[in-house]
Amino acid sequence: MTRATITGLGTAVGNKVITNHDLAAVLDTSDEWIVERTGIHERRVGGSCLELGGQAARIALKEAEMDASDLDLIICATCTPDQVFPAVSNRLQEDLGAACGAFDLNAACSGFTYAISLAQAQISAGMERVLVVGVDTLSRFTDWDDRSTAILFGDGAGAVVMEPARRDDRGVLSTYMGSEGRFADLLTCDFGDYIRMDGKEVFRQAVRVMVSASRRVLADAGLEPSDVTVVIPHQANLRIIESAMKRLGIPLGKAATVIEVTGNTSSASIPLAMGAAVSKSGIADGDVVLLVGFGAGMSVAAALLRWGR
Length: 309
Ligand code: UT7
Fold this sequence. Notes:
By secondary structure, the protein is α/β, with parallel strands linked by helices. The protein has helices spanning 20-24, 31-38, 49-63, 88-96, 111-124, 147-150, 199-220, 238-248, 259-262, 269-280; strands spanning 4-13, 16-19, 42-45, 73-77, 101-105, 130-137, 155-164, 171-179, 187-189, 195-197, 230-233, 288-295, 299-306.
């Protein structure tokens, strides 16, 4: 089987910084409470999905040394598109100067990892250059007067270019896509409304599904938790990440995080954390990288990759 591997990575965040202190000035909350319960210090807001996604995609294409006109497919994971239709990916295709097929995918905060799975499938079926974008602008759907949600969300984008790996032990090793519709009412956003959620229950279910999806992709690849070099989890709450890592038996130091400065950016959170991991300590050739996302639905997805061409 041809494996897809990441050959370019780009990120972008909203240009306005909102700190916990800014929120504490207008809401009944405090920097201390937010940091202790979520790990978030500040979040970035602003920009459309097209603007943020385009910015991230251009950086990823440049790193992959690829012209957009050579792309075979654009998959954009988002649950906050700029319009009901056309798709963000369709606008991106024109904006970047690509001539390929393009579609959006909504699996809430699991969207980016779902898209990695689909890119792998297309590359194993013969495509050669797939752009995967994860972008969300949750600030547009946040009730900034509601302290239980306003503290959590931000806007951002991450993009990766995926191509067939040159070595057959590099690239995507295994993937998993899950959905547990019985939990759909825990986290919702109706047309014309704001994000509503049962935070405590989302927290509980999130840890459970992250752990089970991670174990599944590890088992499918014949690997153990101790083989994982870097975990790149969805950035919803640092305590969710800590609990999941503990249950998986993987040291917390192996988890990439960016939530401290971005808040929860939904489909963008995993590529943003990947970007942070690459610039902080680097991800080395041969490293085993576990992506694991969860979100409204509950949706859940994991992908295991061996880094390198
Ligand atoms: O992509 C997925 C998106 N969503 C999530 O992942 C959400 C997962 N859940 C969470 O992150 C956490 O449940 C929250 C951070 C949302 C809340 O933390 P918690 O530890 O579950 O707090 P809680 O909801 O149980 O609230 C505890 C107390 C309550 O007061 P009482 O009833 O004990 O008097 C809340 O009213 O904290 C109060 N509270 C706040 N206090 C200060 C809730 N929000 C705030 C706030 N500042 N911002």
